[in-house]
Amino acid sequence: MNLYVLLKRTFDTEEKISILNGGIGDDGAEFIINPYDEYAVEEAIRLRDVHGGEVTVVTVGTDESQKQLRTALAMGADKAVLINSEEEMDEGDQFTTARILTEYLKDKKADLILAGNMTIDGGSGQVGPRVAEGLDIPCITTITKIEISGSDVQLTQDLEGDSQKVSTSLPLLITCQQGLNEPRYPSLPGIMKAKKKPLEELELDDLSLEEADAAPKTKTIELFMPPQKAAGRILQGELAGQVNELVTLLRSEAKVI
Question: What is the CATH number of the domain that holds 64?
Fold first, then answer.
């Protein structure tokens, strides 16, 4: 089975994020594999171990992303690919990432592509579905269980408090939700083996993709922290008096009536 995992480098979930000059300050911050992508890496490894084949992890980013790719290799992935967009694309968006990944994957004959349900930094959940659309293959999101028999696939899809069963077939792209598995920690032997596993680095020119073809469709104007919420107020006295005071406050202070 030919398995590909879409991976992104993100802030460590324990990091305290600061906003500097309308952007995120990342000096000294720790970066990790996007946690939802870890579920995708783990599930791809498990499926390979059962069905055979090869797991390739792919990311669009800068040289710093090599660390996260090596972590995925240490978990058990077979190969890694870094599509380096550092020089060509100063700022991309979900369209940019998906367009680059689609161009890379279009001739790879992938049986199954796995991605995280969303990233913890952007949270849009767009890249996986956009890649599936570009490759003209089915896409099922928020998966918590997958069973494969030949080319037939049975899936359990999370529906925010409920779930549903979905039947489809390969080739297929799925996005992975919490509950699908418990990602393993890289072992010491795995870390040592990862150093010898292939990590290919490509540029946009290697994909015959012009910068204009992957130009972002959106632009971030500014990032800022939400304003601090005012402390709540507890009304005292008889119920009728509290109601009158509440109405007065809603009219004079909140200005909602």
Answer: 3.40.50.620
Structure tokens given for 18: 């600061």
- Measuring CA to CA, which residue among 192, 193, 36, 197 is closest to residue 120? 36
- Note whether residue 250 is domain-resident: no
- For residue 224, being part of any structural domain is answered with no
Per cent of the chain over pLDDT 70 is: 96
Neighbouring residues of 243: CB distance < 8 A, sequence distance ≥ 6: none
| Count of domains observed in the chain | 1
Q: Which residue has the higher pLDDT, 158 or 19?
A: 158
25: containing domain? 2-214
Contact in structure between 43 and 129 (CB atoms under 8 Å): no
The answer as to whether 66 is a domain residue is yes
Q: Which CA distances in Å does 195 have to 2, 65, 69, 189, 256?
A: 22, 15, 11, 10, 61
Bridge partners, 145 (sequence order)? 156
Question: How far is 48 from 58, CA to CA, in rounded Å?
Answer: 16
Residues 99 and 84: their CA atoms lie apart, in Å, by 14
pLDDT digits (tens, 9 = 90+) for 184-234: 999 999 999 999 999 999 998 899 888 888 888 988 888 787 888 878 889
Identify the CA nearest to 37 among candidates 116, 144, 110: 116
Residue with tokens 């390739």: 56
Helix (H) or strand (E) holding 113: strand 112-116
- Assess if residue 158 is contained within a domain: yes
